[in-house]
Write a structure and sequence with these properties.
This protein is an all-alpha fold. Helices cover 77% and strands 0% of the residues. It has one domain: de novo design (two linked rop proteins), CATH 1.20.1440.60. The protein is built from four helices and no strands.
């Protein structure tokens, strides 16, 4: 339905996932099946749900998957705050990541609004 490679939100979500993967690679190995796994899954879920929605047959379905992507972004935001409080991510880095996530959330809401206006 939509040309995925033309969706700026999707590109930004992929950039975030790459950044997240690099950051969690510095976490202690005892977090491999805990916080690392959760953070990776949440970050990938954002871009993946945008992609899945773009491939659906209707605007309403796309909006639904954008909502799921936004939920994953809030999940990721929470996990970054927890990792920061556990001193796994430095304050300045956590702040930059949270700002990046919040930018994605705003873009997502704006995109959903534009799609709703097409209905």
């Amino acid at each position: 339905m939509h040309h995925l490679k033309e969706i700026k939100l999707w590109h930004k979500a992929i950039e975030l996932s790459i950044r997240i993967y690099k950051i969690v690679s510095t976490f202690p190995l005892d977090e491999k099946y805990g916080l690392i796994s959760q953070i990776k899954r949440a970050s990938i879920s954002i871009a993946s749900n945008i992609a899945e929605g773009a491939g659906r047959n209707s605007i309403n379905e796309f909006i639904h998957f954008l909502g799921i992507a936004n939920g994953s972004s809030y999940e990721l935001l929470t996990q970054i705050v927890i990792a920061n409080k556990l001193a796994l991510i430095a304050d300045d880095e956590a702040k930059r990541i949270c700002e990046q996530i919040e930018e994605l959330q705003k873009m997502n809401y704006g995109f959903q609004k534009r799609l709703k206006n097409k209905i």
